[in-house]
Amino acid sequence: MTDKSNELEIMRHSLAHILAAAVKKMFPDAKLGMGPAIDNGFYYDFELPRSLIPEDLKTITSNMKKLIAGNAKFERYEMPADESLKKLENEPYKQELINDLQNKGETTVTFYKAGDFEDLCAGPHVESTKDLPPFKLTSIAGAYWKGSEENIMLQRVYGLAFSTQKELDDYIKMQEEAKKRDHRKLGKELDLFVFSELVGPGLPLFTPKGTIIIEELKKQVEKICREYGFQKVSTPALAKIDLYEISGHKQKFEDELFYVTSKYKQQHVLRPVICPHQTQLYASKPRSYRDLPIRYMESDKMYRAEKPGEIGGLNRVYAITVEDGHTFCRLDQVKNEIKGLVKIIKEFYSSLGMMEKFWVSISLRDPEHPEKYIGEQKDWEKSERILQEVSDELKLNGVRCEGEAALYGPKLDFQFKAVSGKEFAIPTIQLDFATPKRYGLTYTDENGQEATPVMVHRAILGSYERFLVLLLEHFAGAFPTWLSPVQVKILPIADRHNQYAEKIKEALGEIRTEVDDRTESIGKKIREAEMQKIPYMLVVGDKEVEENKVAVRAYSKGDLGSKTIEEFTKDLTNEIKEKTK
User: Residues annotated in the binding site, as ranges?
Assistant: First the structure.
């Protein structure tokens, strides 16, 4: 964290302190929870005598500004933990925090005072309220105390804070734009996916249009991967629990496993990951060093029992359609394998116009918690060194991020920034020495000796559900032509032009085309096609029929002039093939 970002975090944390003071002024009997700084702002949790409403934010903001205008100093002092429990006898949540500290061996606690308000807090804070940055309270939400569903739900007030008013205004504007790009809103408007109460939450149903997008993505990623030697495989969604006990995933996903039992008392698990299945394809017969590398790819379902409160839209679902792949190779092949995967990622994301802004994380172990990982120390050191070398050789400028590694090995995680400003990490390359050893995978080396392969995991687009969220937010629903569910909408001006419209549709062949032959004005047809974000509209009337042409309109660009059917078909076919737009 840079000095500047640390300074901003301190200011945001100080604003949380002032927020608590303002709420206490409004509700003297309020019970205080916790109030940390977070990305882009701060929050504070409260137990209050009534539910807050959006209008309350104005009153709280006014109270905060009055406190800030008073130019109060933040004063720090310490107190024995036992004495502080008496001091906070009307603050049960603060008392619980003090008890937690005592259980860790702490005998004193820290308070901060600003004006008449003081709060249990480790700090640090700004020197005075005059040092606080521009802020805006944004929302009210429910939040379980300490994040546990077993605890009481408190009311959380969120706020934004930035160093300057311009940064705050720009962020608010970006958030407003993000609301327009909300995937749930766009998914409904564009008829891409639905949810059913009978099917259940977290189990999306994809419409014909939504399925087209997923199938096109599959075709594109599989086409690129085949060029680099990947072969498509298919494995079952069920497995014995033994499979995941060996890999270590049972322990990691213990609370997220779906168990399936038949009337014959057979028990299986819906897979939480795909990689263990693919190890068994490799293990199905003897392998020689000449056979390696062996590359498998698969797009299929896996299942995780997410917490009900975390299920929402396509971001967190129970049934996850993943694009997954694994390479089994020799140690001397690892670097070239990783470099090939970097090329695949760049090629795929270039086809979506998304390679302009990205950075790479070298995701490493948390050195303070080695128990979170499997594998041998020497293998971790070797794999982390290899990823650093690849980053250096390809000039990826990888940023080392401790604690972000996978269960079995370090990763190269590609972080992209969408048009909405949101950053996302989907493509990943993971180096794994541990899993092949756990499953006893071997090959015969050039000396006739038994050796263990290295396993390289890769995900190019991750899960199709989350990737669709990204695409909707990035493109605001206006997909590139090659990916759009409907690529062309033919708009006959009058009923007498319907037959010519059908002739055009037939001439367009495999291009995804619809004809709007409703008895509506051409203006309404164009407006509705624009709302559906159709890449191209072909308007046909008497003149077009007579000249055997079409009047071409492009989404958000307007009229592109008149073309023959052959010219338009050729141009569009090339555009789709080259994925230039």
Answer: 275, 326, 457
Spatial separation of the C-alpha atoms in residues 571 and 561, rounded to whole Å: 14
What number of other Cβ atoms are within 10 A of residue 102's Cβ?
15
The two three-digit tokens of residue 471, written as one number: 């695409």
- Burial label for 178, CB within 10 Å (0-12, 13-18, 19+), is middle
Contact status, residue 148 vs residue 161, Cβ threshold 8 Å: no
Task: Identify the residue whose tokens are 């959006």.
Answer: 54
Name the amino acid, one letter, at 110. T
On whether the pTM is more than 0.90, the answer is no
| Helix pair 334-350, 377-393: axis angle to 10 deg | 50
CB half-sphere exposure, 148, CA atoms < 13 A: 4
How many secondary structure helices (H) and strands (E) does the chain include?
18, 28
Within this chain, domains 3-176 and 189-474 share the same CATH topology: no
Note the Cα 4 to chain centre separation in Å: 27
Give the C-alpha separation, 154 to 141, whole Å: 8
pLDDT band at residue 581 using 50, 70 and 90 as cut-offs: low
Q: Which CATH architecture has domain 3-176?
A: 2-Layer Sandwich (3.30)
The Cα 10–Cα 114 span in angstroms is: 15
Q: Which residues are annotated as a binding site for Zn(2+)?
A: 275, 326, 457
Which residue type, as a one-letter code, is found at position 294?
A: I
Parallel/antiparallel/unpaired status of strands 454-459 and 319-329 = antiparallel
448 contacts: CB under 8 Å, gap ≥ 6: none
pLDDT band at 421 (very low <50, low <70, confident <90, very high): low
And the tokens for 113? Answer: 């005072």
CA distances from 217 to 241, 473, 483, 485 (A): 32, 16, 8, 12
Answer yes or no: CATH 3.40.50.150 is held by domain 488-578.
no
Contacts 24+ apart (CB under 8 A), 550-556: 550/490, 550/504, 553/526, 555/478, 555/530, 556/478, 556/530
Domain boundaries, the chain: 3-176, 189-474, 488-578
Distances (CA, A) of 172 to 148, 175, 192, 469: 30, 5, 28, 21
Span 484-497, mean pLDDT?
Answer: 96
DSSP state of 74: E
* Angle in degrees, 0-180, between the axes of helices 565-578 and 498-507, rounded to the nearest 10: 40
Please determine, looking at this structure, whether the domain spanning 189-474 carries the CATH number 3.30.930.10. yes
Q: Average pLDDT, whole number, for the chain?
A: 92
